Amino acid sequence: MRAVESGSQTISVIKTAALLIAALVPFCAGGCVRNPVTGEREFHAISEKAELNLGRETQKAIVKEYGQYLNPSVQAYINEVGQKIVAVCDRPGVSYEFIVLDTPLVNAFAVPGCVFITRGILELIDDEAELAGVIGHEVGHITGYHAVKLIQKSYGYGFLATFAAIAGTIYSPTLRDGKEYAAYYETLYRGIGIVTAGFLTGYGRDFELEADRTGLKYAILAGYDPDAIISFFKRMRLLEEDEALGIAVFLRTHPPTNDRIKQIKRILSVDEDAKKMKRKEREPARKIAALLKSTTVQFQDHFERYQEVVKSIPKVEADPSGVIKNGKYENSRVRVKLETPRGWKMERAYGKSLVSFFSADGKAQGELQYTRVQADPVVKAEETASFAGTHGSTTALTSAQWADAVEKTLRFQKRTGREVTYPAGPSYVGTYVGPDRMGRPAFYKMLFVLRGVGEGHYDGLLLSCAAPEDTYLDYLVDFELIMKSLSWTAK
Asked: Please, what is the angle between helix 146-154 and helix 48-66, to 10°?
């Protein structure tokens, strides 16, 4: 680490200490809140304002990655069902948004103040009651403060104090010094990274099961048939082995489907002895039992209405040219092949990625991205490199120059980099330090391969592998095998 002058260091320490003290004062005075879902008192190191600001910033990141499905009638319908759930939820004072993501990925996810539903999961849902159960589950993540708890679990309270102060002023930063401004955004995006990662990693078994209980309660209170939750879970269980549906992410981010079905059945068994239930299930079971026994409540599924809406949505097919089999990935459209070592698992990816992969212990991970590149937005192949230049170049752009342009957009610290020749072609390999999907420190090894396709246009492959700092060396051989397995056939 580069040395700093004593005076500057002292000022920095004073500013940091002041920031921590200012952030911690309100925590000591009112950081203990009652969780409206569990009824228990909890210490929250992040204010509601900071929580919702974080949600808004995370929402932008997810929409940028997957795209929003812009259909006014569908959006109005999803919002209508969502607001029915909000009307009976435990935090009705929060402003909730409901967004349909333009992806065939089968998933649903919530960040503070916003629920995401993908086009893929809408195609699998059968009626409005099932939709209400899915939305109720996601709203349950928000009412139960699961994003706050996830951040608090991931970091110590020193970081949380800094993050809370920063997140509380996302829209009006006052940091003037360049280094402090960079630290501001580094801290903010570590928090955003944790919550955004939840879209692909989930909130964890306990929180997911709690959200199931909460979502069931909300759906019933909103007048929806409770049996729809079980029918949805059973359909998901039947489709678990259908790789073409891209359902693996949904299943990986939630507890085993059989466990979820058993919990719902226990709660819906009105006459079952409460002593046989788990403690966390008893209170919601009592409330639900009272509703189910009421003769005045009319439960609906609105099957016909849902089918009319969902049939108006054009079906989005997953890329049929990408095939995963026995640890090997092959894409005939892009003409690439990739192989992982024994024990690693591959999964279909969406957004900017073609495929993702994970080590057997889940600690190491990676993905392969494909992109089209134009010469102007990246570094030119000239004697004096320029960024975002406006004049053309007759010299071909190299993988190293593309890597240099990409590095400028990453919030990573570069360690090493060199030009190499791999089976995929002339390449550039760089190593970096940065946050993983959960916002934890990780080491990255990235392979950049660029190939010209004519008239200043290029195809680019970016293969990245990452592992936690303390175990990175254990995976270096695997990372090298993966990168050497990448082949790219010319068109």
From this structure: 90
Structure confidence by residue, pLDDT tens digits, 10-31: 334 334 333 433 443 344 334 6
Spatial separation of the C-alpha atoms in residues 79 and 37, rounded to whole Å? 22
Say if CB 214 and CB 145 are below 8 A apart. no
Identify the burial level of 296 via C-beta atoms within 10 angstroms of its C-beta, where 0-12 means exposed, 13-18 middle and 19 or more buried: exposed
Closest Cα partner for 146 from 186, 109, 200, 178? 109
Cα–Cα distance measured from residue 299 to residue 437, given in angstroms and rounded to the nearest whole number: 40
Compute the distance between CA of residue 420 and CA of residue 399 in angstroms, rounded to an integer.
Answer: 10
- How many distinct helices (H) and strands (E) make up the chain? 16, 16
Per-residue tokens: 272? 């079952």
Q: Which amino acid is at 17?
A: A
Kindly report, residue by residue over 423-470, the tens digit of the pLDDT. Answer: 999 999 999 998 776 566 889 999 999 998 777 788 999 999 999 988
pLDDT tens-digit readout, 36-52: 998 889 888 778 888 88
Per the model's pLDDT, the better-predicted residue between 219 and 199 turns out to be 219
Q: Are 427 and 449 in contact (CB under 8 A)?
A: yes
Written as six digits, the tokens of 384 are 């004096």
Of the candidates 255, 444, 441, 440, the residue with the CA atom closest to the CA atom of residue 365: 444
Burial of 251 (0-12, 13-18, 19+ CB in 10 A): middle
Whether 198 contacts 54, CB under 8 Å: no
**Environment class of residue 36 by beta-carbon count within 10 Å: exposed (0-12), middle (13-18) or buried (19+)?**
middle
φ, ψ at 42 (rounded to 5°): -135, 150
Three-state secondary structure readout of 56-100: HHHHHHHHHHHCECCCHHHHHHHHHHHHHHHHHCCCCCCCCEEEE
